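A reminder from the course coordinator: this example appears on the midterm review sheet, so study it carefully.

Given structure:
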């Protein structure tokens, strides 16, 4: 029964990632829905009212497009991620006293569903805890969000879904058997070390990019590091971070989470690229918007 529930939840998360990824692409290429993707500087002024049949037909869409929350609420994502990954890090502690989680152990000790080694899962939770802490500090202390800057509420809800799903799928896919069986030594592979190195490198670069952006005059184009080649180097770092998470977990749900991240940030970067080209009249705007020499 428990195995069935875990499989079902994991499959639902996979389906949700696929639907969300396709939804982003549909919204991107449908002119009437593009407003769902915009936030901050790329967000258009609130939609005005229309008259006649079109206004009645589009009333619900207009209402949804105008449902906005403050952009500085981004910090909510990292509070949520920090909370969930801290729980995951605690539960995957090899040295935790079994009597404190006996009711839980009875259900998980012999189940075959988890494929992520316990030590690797715990490392993933630890890295994401660090990521959440850094991003929380950046969004609250470093970045200069205007109190009037907004994002669509569906963009906000997508973020809540993503950080919840990524944490939950790590937990669901962890092989907890090693909690009760210490006879199996941890097995580490080169891909794990490469993934950790990629995570740390991308995180460091993202911090430096955010520091650079925090010192810019509003709406000026960043020029530090990879910003010389792409207009959203900080998004590229985020993609690399979740590529590293997939490299650690090596499961379908992590891959779909990475794919969602790639598509979501690539689309957002294309919006930013278009904004810069329009504002700067094509001058001093990098050719690529997120991946050097590719996109």
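Designed residues:
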């Amino acid at each position: 029964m428990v195995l069935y529930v875990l499989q079902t939840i994991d499959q639902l998360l996979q389906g949700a990632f696929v639907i969300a990824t396709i939804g982003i692409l549909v919204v991107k290429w449908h002119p009437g829905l593009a407003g769902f993707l915009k936030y901050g500087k790329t967000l258009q002024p609130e939609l005005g009212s229309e008259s006649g049949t079109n206004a009645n037909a589009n009333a619900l869409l207009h209402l949804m497009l105008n449902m906005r929350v403050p952009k500085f609420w981004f910090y909510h994502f990292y509070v949520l991620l920090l909370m969930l990954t801290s729980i995951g890090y605690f539960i995957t502690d090899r040295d935790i006293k079994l009597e404190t989680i006996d009711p839980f152990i009875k259900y998980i000790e012999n189940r075959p569903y988890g494929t992520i080694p316990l030590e690797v899962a715990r490392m993933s939770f630890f890295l994401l805890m660090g990521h959440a802490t850094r991003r929380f500090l950046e969004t609250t202390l470093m970045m200069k969000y205007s109190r009037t800057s907004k994002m669509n509420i569906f963009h906000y809800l997508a973020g809540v879904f993503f950080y919840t799903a990524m944490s939950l799928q790590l937990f669901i896919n962890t092989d907890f058997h090693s909690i009760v069986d210490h006879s199996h030594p941890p097995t580490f592979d080169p891909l794990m070390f490469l993934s950790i190195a990629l995570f740390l490198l991308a995180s460091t670069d993202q911090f430096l990019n955010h520091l650079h952006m925090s010192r810019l005059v509003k709406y000026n184009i960043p020029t530090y590091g990879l910003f010389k080649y792409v207009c959203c180097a900080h998004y590229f770092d985020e993609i690399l971070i979740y590529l590293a998470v997939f490299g650690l977990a090596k499961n379908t749900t992590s891959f779909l989470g990475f794919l969602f991240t790639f598509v979501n940030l690539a689309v957002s970067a294309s919006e930013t690229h278009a904004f810069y080209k329009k504002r700067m009249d094509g001058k001093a705007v990098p050719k690529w918007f997120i991946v050097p020499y590719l996109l």
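The longest strand covers residues 68-70. Confidence is low (pLDDT under 50) at residues 46-53.
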